[in-house]
Specification:
Blueprint: E1 4-5, E2 8-16, H1 27-37, E3 52-60, E4 79-87, H2 90-100, H3 102-109, H4 122-132, E5 133-134, H5 148-167, H6 173-189
Antiparallel strand pairs: 1-2, 2-4, 2-5, 3-4
Amino acid sequence: MANRNGTAYDLTLLCPIIADGDRGQSPVGGLRDYLRRLPRGTESPFCKVTATHLARLSIIDDIYFQGTTAREDHLHSKYLWFNTNFDGDPVSYLDSMFDAMPREIGEIWKCCVGFPGVAAGREKWKHYMFRCQIDTTFFFAAVNDMSVDEMLRGLMLKQEFSVFVAANQGVAAERLQQNFLAFMEDFKKAPTPQRGSVYYQFDGRGE
């Protein structure tokens, strides 16, 4: 399947944005402002959708003309581009997304043509999302056989092991072994880092 690589799934949507009206702020202008205000990192609404590896939202205004000898094409409307990589299947993921961030879904997609609204229920929303889906022709997943939690713990171990190596330069072999065993015990007991976190230290020194 083009949209799957290992256990990871790539969902890509192109959703046409409602054309500008005669009065008030344009739909694309309102959407652009809302996307700018969306929190990132650990406060991102997508952190509440626990299977998410990454999620991106962007607005495509038109096709970039590269100059001759390329043919000059233009889009019939502006598009909201949504791309997310996650563990599992797209139906379960969209169910989780609908449960975790209905307010954000309503604010983002209300500017798009054909959006049924959150009040219409999850099934109509999922149907709309799948209508906007485009197949991924070449999905490259950086890690395609690890869950989000496994990746976060792997990143934490990598970062903390670098700190451990720097702190144990020149330590005698017997003492180094003791320190390493203690280090691994600390790692096993450490909580999994928050989704969207940049810092993975055992003791939160990066906060």
